[in-house]
Amino acid sequence: MVGHFELVSGWGRTSPSYCDIHRPISDQEVAEIIESAKRTGKQIVPRGLGRSYGDAAQLGGNIVIDVRSLDHIYACDLDSGLISVGAGISLDALMRIFIPMGWFVPVTPGTRFVTVGGAIAADVHGKNHHVDGSFGNHVASLTLISSKGVMELDPSNEEFWATVGGMGLTGTIVRATIRMSKIETSLIKVDTERASNIDELINIMETTDDNYKYSVAWIDLISSGKNLGRSVLTRGDHALLEDLPAAKRKKARYFDPKVGLKAPLSPPFSPLTPLTVRTFNTLWYHKSPTRKLGEIQEITKFFHPLDGVGDWNKLYGPKGFCQYQFVVPFGQEDALKQIIDATSRSKMTSFLAVLKRFGEGNASHLSFPSPGWTLALDVALGALGPAKYFDYLDNIVLKAGGKIYLAKDSRVRPDLFSAMYPNLPKWQVIRDRLDPDNLFSSDLAKRLSILETK
Amino acid sequence: MNDSTSMPQNVVVLGGTSEIATHTLRLLSGRRLKKVLLVGRNKNALESSAMGLESLGVDCAIHVRDTTDIKSASRLEDAVKESLDTVDLVLVATGMLGSSDFENLGPLGVAEIIETNFVGPSSELVVLADILKRQGFGSIVIISSVAGVRVRKDNFIYGSAKAGLDAFAQGLSQCLAPHNIRVTIVRFGFVRTRMTKGLKDAPMTIDVDTASSLLVAAIEKGKTGVVWIPSNLKFLFAILRALPTKIWWKLSERS
Fold this sequence. Notes:
Chain A is an alpha+beta fold and 454 residues long. Helices cover 27% and strands 24% of the residues of chain A. In chain A, the strands form four sheets. Chain A has an eight-stranded antiparallel β-sheet with strand order 15-12-14-13-17-18-16-19. A five-stranded antiparallel β-sheet of chain A has the order 5-6-10-8-9. In chain A, strand 5 and strand 6 form a beta hairpin. Chain B is an alpha/beta fold and 255 residues long. In chain B, 48% of the residues lie in helices and 18% in strands. Chain B is built from eight helices and nine strands. Chain B has helices spanning 19-29, 43-54, 72-83, 102-135, 156-176, 208-220, 233-242, 245-254; strands spanning 10-14, 35-40, 59-64, 89-92, 138-145, 181-188, 191-192, 206-207, 225-229. In chain B, helix 1 links the parallel strand 1 and strand 2. In chain B, helix 4 (102-135) runs parallel beside helix 5 (156-176). Chains A and B meet through strand 2, helix 11 and helix 14 of A and loops of B.
């Protein structure tokens, strides 16, 4: 297979590198690429739709296996909702095909444009984590091509759990069987309410989150004082047929979202300045209803509002941006408040900050979600400040027993990363067994010394 | 690897005993710096620089440059491969002020200054640029000087060599841009270092701590192209460059 060199980066558009891109169209071709890499001494990383924010799906000067053409549907059981698909198929495609048939993806992150392989490798979570767990919990089996050949894995194998959340470092996932979740309509019944500060928000979420399948809060990280952490909480469930007005029931499972205008070619400077972000945050808070129950929303509006703007990541300007996401355990609310307070005092202006409660984690060694509070915030790069500010947050997070999310990371200190993931040595043992030749790596793995055993 | 805030982990330094380089590496060691290859002529001086950095937790390797050896360049390539997994940043800090008394220096003395400041680093940059191209990413920061922007008799041999290096870097920058390699040319004004000891301060003189922290700031901001440190030199030299020769001579005579 012939590849070609291309400059690739993550969604945050930072630290790009030139990689030798191969786009196989069959599992056989994936195996061939791996075999030929063994001969040439090159290393490999799998890549899907490039929605990891940092350097997880790139490997400068080496091989990238672009899995997007492995997008077949091999089997689907419309009674049980069990589907077998190629790892390169996107959640967008799955939704377009299966929503009209009454099946929804078990977990969706904030974008539909991720592949199934990427969703497993990063063990992505969605607004239903407190109820349903992360993507890996809904994978019945997967096919991995590692440097040792083709392997069929299921949750009874420890190699399965090293691959779930394993950031593509155990091999290339080529197929997966997923349990979809049953729906009656393609709409969500949403309750929206405002919380005037962080304490009120924590209280509402702790007491009533479990009444909803989906829950997330948007936080204004700029307001301070008594408005510190004021937020808009949106929570909901899949609407049932009976929730819809009679006229809408005929097309209850209609789903055909359009991607709107693309952001213009990267502007020379970011329009997301402190002033515009502050204005936006204030408007957003005040335009949201104080309390509105049972509103019927489309899936795209509820789950993927940003997918409506193509390439919105370019709005952060030429130097890109960093999305910082961490989780701290329940009981560490003070650390959460300390971070929100520090952010509102700092000059960092986060356009989007979302808070969510995680439920139980799974058996994956490197999976991010674990019981606690997770906050994600976006900061434009290219100025002095963010680097040291994030380092400061890392220390608070680590001290509180929390961790950062590899799929979002582009800058954590390697020693702090290994302290945040105490299961790393266990994972390394399994990975070394799967990849004794050290064929799989990534810029992320090198930056964080993920593969270096102590 | 470089992180998203441009902080490097593995660095090659040409002119590994330079004071600005040493101070810059100290600052980077507080960020993400892991490993450094120090390149220079003086083995003992390189070893003591390395010792200082190792005490800060940075792994160090040294490579002694031998300008008389035509295979020197390929030995540098081997040294890089042996000591570093990736080359995230190449810092060119080679500098030898020398004198400008060319009659006393003689042809060999003049050639040595030009060799140290221009020929050596340029030819080594060619080797390093090739490594960066193959790995698909990387940055190069080249320390230049205002001495090469408007040349005066007190330091014109050094100045002319820096002017050569500066021009070389501009061309290299254009060649490497399509390969995802960023080149930054840092034009320093007068910095109080060993090299400038005993000389009278010039306008906007800074000490080496300020110089290196401004250099790290430029890296962190992801600056490419020409950076002036301190930044106001840009405006001063826009004027100085435009001055008629006779006025410039008078002016530089007085300082």
